[in-house]
Design brief:
With 194 residues, this protein is mostly helical. The protein has one domain (9-189): Tetracycline Repressor, domain 2. It is built from 9 helices and no strands. It has helices spanning 9-23, 30-37, 41-48, 51-73, 81-89, 102-110, 115-141, 151-170, 175-189. Helix 1 crosses helix 4, helix 4 (51-73) packs parallel to helix 7 (115-141) and helix 6 (102-110) crosses helix 7. It is elongated and about 60 Å long. Pfam families: TetR_C_13, TetR_N. This is TetR/AcrR family transcriptional regulator. Residues 29-48 bind DNA.
Length: 194
Amino acid sequence: MARPRKFDEQEAVEAARRQFSETGYHGTSVDDLSRATGLSKGSLYGAFGDKEALFQHVFEEYCTSADAGAAARLEGPEDEALDRLRQWLRVPEGFDGRLGCLLAKTTAELAWQNDTIANRSLATFDTLFDSCRQLVEQAQRAGHIDPAADPEALGGLVVTTHRGLEALAKAGVGAQTLNRIADAAIDSIAQPIP
């Protein structure tokens, strides 16, 4: 009979996610994961399999969370859709974004050599593009964005701005600067109120 686990699996997954976010897949050793999670190598292997299996688990959970966040942003009154786009781009004061986004980091590091990662990354980006397109359409119906504008292109612009802001945050650009850029991006697609 297998012995019951004496650790919180979700806490271990979150610790592994922080480690992978900080050092990337290739830059993370099993020793690093053991230190980060507080688990022995044997416990890590017993619970999650090898490093790749643990990473796949972490990455899938991260992408699933991103998908859920995108769906949640669609909820709410149409006349607040532009504000929801703005809030997605903005960062709170004191935010330290140096770890960056695991989706962006993983896509850059692994998608070119791993079809599973490439496909999951693309599916998550497609979800982000689609949710931003839908938010633009909501804002168009509410009269906050020109109804003649291309919602797919504007949604893509918002996603691309988000990715760029994450890269700037990782480089250490402060929240105040990032938020001025975020506001300028949203203001640039907003229809002036007469």
